[in-house]
Amino acid sequence: MRQSFIFTSESVSEGHPDKVADQISDSIVDLFLSKDPEARVACETMTTTQLVVLAGEIRGKGVYENDQWAPGIEEEIEAAVRATVKRIGYEQSGFHWNEFKFLNELHGQSAHIAMGVDESGNKDEGAGDQGIMFGYATDETPGLMPATLYYSHKILERMAADRHSGAAPFLEPDAKSQVTLQYENGVPVKAVALVVSTQHSADLSNAEGQARLRDYVKGVFADVLPEGWLPEDKAIYVNPTGLFEIGGPDGDAGLTGRKIIVDTYGGAAPHGGGAFSGKDPTKVDRSAAYVARYLAKNVVAAGLAKRCTIQLSYAIGVAEPLSVYVDLHGTGTVDEARLEAALPQLVRLTPKGIREHLKLNKPIYSKTAAYGHFGRDAEGDLFTWEKTDLADALKAAVA
User: How many of the other CB atoms lie within 10 Å of CB of 208?
Assistant: First the structure.
């Protein structure tokens, strides 16, 4: 394992067009789960200039039954979509929460998929699709996340908070960040390059305004990064292409699920390819990725390794995982095979077992759809997969 290297991760803000789409899709998941905890949702969103389109398949009591919508639900769907865009802050001529055209093309779930996935008789609930899912944890930050992604998220979270509070009224919702760190002896020690591209108001579209924006962003870097980590000025890039007035869905189309590396580990760990947002927790793309993170985080929290990657695999309609793989990257104090045997004994890794253990059948997903699904603080029903409550049992299981 390399000990000294340079590594980079990026993040995007809640106003990035793909993240707008993710948040809309998860607002639909939350709406349906609030009415039926067993609702089935696979909602894709497309955004562009003054247009939002929903597509996908759904099923649920009080939502969509017998091939028709429940009374009033279509109006609730549109209200949830517009409220999400309003919360993000889009009131622009090219994309306005109260003015965009809205198309709802959701339809009923395939009966063949339902037959393979639903629990019936002696048949346990099966996975909603085949696939591979990864979880990862590293001890380089308090939240056991890669530092490059952790700081990329924190920079944009701070900018969004300043925009919403009025502390930075010149900021608009669309933004991206990128953090490049120097690692020595496996530990991040300083930033060697920092990038922010952010949409801004028209009154910053001059040399004086751009200088003001650069000073503001440099102040955010200084506040967010550890003391002494700032790189030399020439390695700080703020809107390197120039002006950025036109942004969000008006500047570029957005689609659900296009920021899966931002959502997970910033490229520091493998990704199985499946997106999270817009999917109810029976979909293992989401729930198995969450439990894989939960298990990896608990391995590191238990002191059994400094880094941990876990892979799970599933077949559609089959309840139990086909494989469990653990890699401690040469940092472990226990053999990986022992963990591979122990982990399924501590958490049942079927779709239903995962949902019950992590309490996933609740409207908790809108808050996951920006600034990462992992590395967040577990609070009540939110981000239960970030808890480290399994650490003691893990240590005992492999002692």
Answer: 9
Residues 6+ apart with CB under 8 A from 53: 45, 46, 47, 102, 103, 105
pLDDT band at 123 (very low <50, low <70, confident <90, very high): low
131 vs 115: CA distance, rounded Å: 19
H/E stretch holding 27 reads helix 17-35
- Give the pLDDT confidence of 127-185 residue by residue, as tens digits: 878 999 999 999 999 999 999 999 999 999 999 999 999 999 999 999 999 999 999 99
Q: Computed from CA positions of residues 372, 37, 128, 113, in that sequence, does the dihedral angle turn out positive or negative?
A: negative
Quick one: which of 67, 86, 74, 82 has its CA closest to 32?
74
Q: Are 239 and 169 contacting, i.e. CB atoms less than 8 angstroms apart?
A: no
Q: Which of 125, 130, 136 is nearest to 292 (CA)?
A: 136
Q: Is 1 exposed, middle or buried (0-12, 13-18, 19+ CB in 10 A)?
A: exposed
Q: Which two tokens mark 373?
A: 């699904």
Measure the CA–CA gap between 367 and 361, rounded to whole angstroms. Answer: 15
Local structure of residue 62 (DSSP, 8 states):
T
Residues with catalytic roles: 16, 18-19, 44, 57, 176, 244, 252-253, 258-259, 279, 283, 285
Percent of the chain with pLDDT over 90: 92
pLDDT of residue 247: 96
Coil, strand or helix at 384: helix
In the predicted structure, residue 290 carries a pLDDT above the cut 90 = yes
Q: Please indicate, yes or no, whether the overall pTM of this predicted structure exceeds 0.90.
A: yes
CB 39 within 8 A of CB 19: no
Chain position carrying tokens 């490229």: 267
Query: Coil, strand or helix: which one is 289?
Result: helix
Instruction: Give strand pairing partners of 316.
Output: 127
